[in-house]
Amino acid sequence: IPFNTIDTALSSLKNSQSYINSGMDIATKIAFDLVESFNDEEDINNMEKVMLEYAAMDRELNNYIRAFEETVNQVKREKPENIPDLENLVQEKLTAIESENSDSDLQRNEKYMYFMDQLKEMKKQCNVNETIEQIDEDIAVTRSQTNFICPITQVEMKRPVRNKVCGHVYEEEAILEIIQSRKQKKKKVRCPKMGCSHVDVKESDLVPDEALKRLIDSQNKQ
């Protein structure tokens, strides 16, 4: 069995995921633009449907890759004398995997969850901007700017990232520098936000906070 050929095919399949990820990133940015421009809610809801369609494609691709990998590993372990029908074996494995799927799987897609979280933040921030004239402007600005300050550098953030575990936000470069420094000493990183009990901040926990970045940029333009 030409396993090198199979490995090459699997590598190509995995590369296809980058196109799905790029599509989800573009859909996310479009949705944020729509919220900022106070577009029709229906347009924004349509982008959510697009994200779910991408999540479905991502699941389908992952299922196929998993079925393929498990089948190949099984054949490698068993080392049959006769070359098996890989296509049928993969299809059987794929059918078994897909039988475990549910609609809720799509809503647990990491990029979809990020999209919904950031969309919620964008709507919240834009609603604040809509009503900002109804309250004392100095108080409003002060409240907003306290969220702009990095707990590490104590200056306004340029590239804020949010910790998925505890929800706190930091300047990307600052938190990554701490993580790398502590990693070299084989020590864990405690969340720099005062009062936070999270004691093991990892780079994989961090996601860009696009909603906050857009708000900071908007305030600075004003």
UniProtKB/TrEMBL annotation:
SMART domains: Ubox. This is E3 SUMO-protein ligase NSE2. It is found in: Nucleus. Signal peptide: none annotated. CDD domains: SPL-RING_NSE2 (cd16651). One of its GO terms (molecular function) is zinc ion binding. GO terms for biological process: double-strand break repair via homologous recombination; protein sumoylation; protein ubiquitination. Gene3D superfamilies: Zinc/RING finger domain, C3HC4 (zinc finger) (3.30.40.10). SUPFAM superfamilies: RING/U-box (SSF57850). It comes from Formicarius rufipectus. GO terms for cellular component: nucleus; Smc5-Smc6 complex. InterPro entries: Nse2(Mms21) (IPR026846), Ubox_domain (IPR003613), Znf_MIZ (IPR004181), Znf_RING/FYVE/PHD (IPR013083). Pfam families: zf-Nse. Belongs to the NSE2 family. Keywords: Ligase, Metal-binding, Nucleus, Transferase, Ubl conjugation pathway, Zinc, Zinc-finger. Pathway: Protein modification; protein sumoylation.
